[in-house]
Automatic annotation (TrEMBL):
<feature type="region of interest" description="Disordered">
    <location>
        <begin position="41"/>
        <end position="72"/>
    </location>
</feature>
<dbReference type="GO" id="GO:0005634">
    <property type="term" value="C:nucleus"/>
</dbReference>
<keyword id="KW-0597">Phosphoprotein</keyword>
<protein>
    <submittedName>
        <fullName>WGS project CCBQ000000000 data, contig 00011</fullName>
    </submittedName>
</protein>
<dbReference type="InterPro" id="IPR015943">
    <property type="entry name" value="WD40/YVTN_repeat-like_dom_sf"/>
</dbReference>
<dbReference type="InterPro" id="IPR044285">
    <property type="entry name" value="PWP1"/>
</dbReference>
<dbReference type="Pfam" id="PF00400">
    <property type="entry name" value="WD40"/>
</dbReference>
<dbReference type="InterPro" id="IPR001680">
    <property type="entry name" value="WD40_rpt"/>
</dbReference>
<keyword id="KW-0853">WD repeat</keyword>
<feature type="repeat" description="WD">
    <location>
        <begin position="285"/>
        <end position="327"/>
    </location>
</feature>
<keyword id="KW-0677">Repeat</keyword>
<feature type="region of interest" description="Disordered">
    <location>
        <begin position="530"/>
        <end position="573"/>
    </location>
</feature>
<dbReference type="InterPro" id="IPR036322">
    <property type="entry name" value="WD40_repeat_dom_sf"/>
</dbReference>
<dbReference type="InterPro" id="IPR019775">
    <property type="entry name" value="WD40_repeat_CS"/>
</dbReference>
<feature type="compositionally biased region" description="Acidic residues">
    <location>
        <begin position="560"/>
        <end position="573"/>
    </location>
</feature>
<dbReference type="GO" id="GO:0006364">
    <property type="term" value="P:rRNA processing"/>
</dbReference>
<feature type="compositionally biased region" description="Acidic residues">
    <location>
        <begin position="46"/>
        <end position="65"/>
    </location>
</feature>
Length: 573
């Protein structure tokens, strides 16, 4: 099951990700992160030792009731059987010499034990990695500047992961009629006269503590206090009330780099009976107390992360200090806050949506919580599941009834929707607008299998709403997540995930109906991509794509990862 997806733009991932090392410094960081409650641990240990001591006393009393002459009878029987003498069973229960026992268990600690020597006199059982192996491993993990990452949260058999995919759009063209451009030779395969097809594969994964509900990419390094630094991190929200932040440029990592909303009394420690649950009516300002429903990273003020929760609050996190700078509880009338996104150009305005049938635009600079928000309302009784900006003035809301609403903030607060679309018969799971083609809308529903692509009117016209271009079932079951690629060179690509295993990637422009419906938009997009590529001395691949109507549709599939993990476990055994 894939529950959430997002993309990492080109150029942010490290070309050679580092391997995770559990050194002393990392152990100190983990201990500080976990805030281990040693007093409780010692108390539990003492109680366990007392229980073991009581059980040992009971066994001793039972053993004392056995006749004392049983030992002599046993020795007499053993003396009769000469065949058993070589096993020295008479002294089987005698305490062993500690030194000999240690040597028998850990043979490498004894000076009397000789190893069989391997090549160059080395122990054959301890082989250090060769330089060739290091180079091969480094090449396998290499992420090129032209690659994108796709982040997807996966749950299999009650175990959850953050899968980090790498997508390569390919290079060159099989069609010899497509002209070459200056800059093509920068790709090593094209320089050798080769053509590389697009590919999608899992680069590495990270284990999560609970079922994930949302994932957000961060281009800021937590705790760095450096506004100029570029980084590659991911924030993950789960059914747990804390938020984990992971470094995507480090593989085999066992612990997150930062945890937001970790209670001071340590959620890692087992709760004791004396601890009382917090009252539901109390506003906790330091951390969430229920599931994290959405995350939004501020691209203007990159040290700020917004989160919304089933505890009815919106929290603004300072990524430098890992603390909640502000907690808002009055925005959505004590209901679940299901979605959030920062304004594309105004970093102080936050868009949120909740189960109170309202979407809110809040200026977080205003201190008074009651005066900071303006509202737009959907039909009474509908709960908003997701919300997205279409542009700086228009935002979209998807509800649990399958409706999609479009609001124009220029019409003022409490204004009616510009249009309403009955997109699905089940609750909407995603509403996505293509960043480079503003009138291309993608919707999906958590109770339906097809993904629907719509063409929206660019200007508000009375009675005119989106028209459906196509509806397609990708075989992922009920769709839980979908998202468009962020870069202009792959702006037609989208990923889809659902309750069935496997991630799907589809290039929408390889479909003839889509190219026909967005013919004008595609031409403008290709021209823009060509100009941007020329400015940096590169060639544009998308500007030469889709030249013929007989091109096959491009759908890439990454199969279920749990099968591969089972095979790896069998090989290790």
């Amino acid at each position: 099951m894939l529950s959430a997806t997002t993309w990492v733009p080109r150029g942010f991932a490290s070309e050679f990700p580092e391997k995770y090392e559990l050194n002393d410094e990392e152990m100190d960081r983990i201990n500080h992160l976990a805030k281990l409650n040693l007093d409780e641990a010692k108390q539990d240990l003492e109680e366990a030792q007392e229980d073991d001591a009581d059980e040992a006393d009971e066994e001793l009393v039972e053993d004392s009731e056995v006749p004392a002459n049983n030992g002599n009878v046993l020795k007499d029987q053993l003396a009769v059987d000469d065949d058993l003498k070589e096993f020295d069973l008479e002294h089987y229960d005698d305490p062993e010499d500690e030194a000999n026992a240690q040597d028998a268990m850990f043979m490498g600690l004894s000076d009397e034990v000789k190893f069989y020597e391997g090549e160059e006199g080395e122990d054959p059982y301890i082989a250090l990695p060769k330089a060739k192996d290091d180079v091969e491993e480094k090449q396998e993990l290499q992420v090129y500047p032209t690659d994108n990452m796709v982040l997807a949260t996966r749950t299999e058999d009650d175990v959850s992961y953050l899968d980090v995919y790498v997508y390569d759009d390919g290079a060159g063209f099989h069609d010899l009629d497509i002209p070459t451009e200056e800059g093509d030779e920068q790709d090593p395969d094209v320089a050798r006269g080769l053509v590389r097809d697009s590919s999608l594969y899992v680069h590495h994964d990270l284990m999560l503590p609970a079922f994930p509900l949302c994932v957000e990419w961060l281009n800021y390094k937590p705790g760095s206090n450096d506004d100029q630094a570029i980084a590659n991190f991911a924030a993950v929200g789960t059914f747990d009330p804390s938020i984990e932040i992971w470094n995507l440029d480090c593989v085999d990592k066992a612990f997150p780099d930062m945890i937001l909303g970790e209670p001071a009394d340590n959620s890692f420690a087992m709760p004791t009976k004396s601890k009382k649950k917090k009252g539901k009516g109390k506003h906790v300002t330091t951390h969430h107390t229920d599931a994290i429903l959405s995350l939004a990273h501020n691209k203007q003020f990159r040290a700020v992360l917004a989160s919304t929760s089933a505890d009815h609050t919106v929290k603004l996190w300072d990524l430098n200090t890992a603390t909640a700078a502000r907690s808002l509880i009055n925005i959505h009338s004590n209901t679940n806050v299901s979605g959030s996104q920062w304004h594309p150009s105004n970093g102080s305005v936050l868009l949120t949506a909740g189960y109170d049938s309202r979407a809110a635009l809040s200026d977080v600079r205003i201190e008074n919580d009651n005066d900071m928000s303006k509202y737009w309302k959907v039909a009474s009784g509908e709960e908003i599941e997701c919300v997205r900006f279409a542009d700086e003035n228009v935002f979209l809301c998807g509800t649990d009834n399958g409706n999609v609403y479009s609001f124009d903030i220029r019409n003022g607060a409490e204004s009616k929707p510009v249009w309403t679309l009955k997109a699905h018969d089940a609750g909407v799971s995603s509403v996505e607008i293509n960043r480079h083609i503003p009138n291309m809308l993608l919707t999906s529903a958590m109770g339906e299998k097809p993904v629907k692509l719509w063409k929206c009117p660019l200007e508000a016209q009375p009675g005119k709403g989106p028209s459906m271009v196509l509806s397609r079932d990708f075989g992922v079951g009920n769709v839980l997540t979908s998202s468009f690629a962020p870069d202009v060179e792959i702006s037609g690509n989208m990923v889809v995930g659902g309750v069935s295993p496997g991630l799907k990637l589809w290039d929408v422009f390889t479909n003839r109906s889509v190219r026909k419906s967005f013919h004008t938009e595609l031409k403008s997009l290709q021209q823009m991509a060509r100009e941007e590529a020329r400015q940096v001395g590169k060639s544009s691949r998308i500007s030469r794509k889709y030249t013929k109507n007989d091109n096959p549709e491009t759908v890439l599939t990454v199969e279920d990862q749990s099968d591969e993990e089972d095979e790896d476990d069998e090989e290790e055994e």
